[in-house]
Amino acid sequence: MNYEACKNCPSLQKCTKSSHRIISEFANENTLKLKQYIDTKEAQNEYKKRGNTVEAPFGILKISYNYNNLRTHGIQQTENIMNLCALSHNIKRLYNIKHNILNEITEIDNFLEKLSTLFETELIATIK
Questions:
Q1: Less packed terminus of the chain by CB within 10 Å, N or C?
Q2: Of 91, 70, 66, the residue nearest 80 (C-alpha)
Q3: Residues 6 or more apart in contact with residue 67 via CB below 8 angstroms
Q4: How many CB atoms lie within 10 A of CB 13?
Q5: Residue 91 contacts residue 84 (beta carbons within 8 Å)
């Protein structure tokens, strides 16, 4: 708290309604730097990426798996259930990624087969 700074501040009437109130800020230098960084365009763009990759699974767990409220007691039991939910979400995601890759490989093979018949040559795709 810096009583003298508040007392002589030109914004005192905007900040406080009484003469005895003091605004306290319990932040260290790193916190203030972080606040300044968050206001930049670069940080906002990074946060948008986070929303897609990190926040989306929580929304899926809440809506699709109906995990708004957990019927357990204690932090450890809740953590165990959330870990199982995250595991099931990740397994489902891996399955979908693999399935999409297999579909793309099939589409590539079909395309190459059509080209082969069109040009009367054999085309083979090697995917590593």
A1: C
A2: 70
A3: 61, 81, 82, 85
A4: 8
A5: no
**pLDDT value, residue 23:** 60
Q: pTM of the entire structure? A: 0.47
DSSP state letter for 51: I
Q: How many CB atoms lie within 10 A of CB 32?
A: 11
Q: Alpha helices of the chain — where are they, by DSSP H?
A: 3-7, 12-15, 29-38, 41-50, 56-63, 75-119
Separation of alpha carbons 39 and 23, rounded Å: 22
In single-letter form, the type of residue at position 33 comes to: K
Would you give per-residue pLDDT tens digits along the chain (128 residues)?
A: 466 777 777 777 777 666 666 666 667 788 888 888 888 999 888 888 877 777 777 788 878 777 777 778 888 988 888 888 888 888 988 999 999 898 888 888 888 888 878 777 666 666 65
Helix axes 41-50, 29-38, angle to 10 degrees: 80
| Helix orientation angle between 56-63 and 75-119, rounded to the nearest 10 degrees | 110
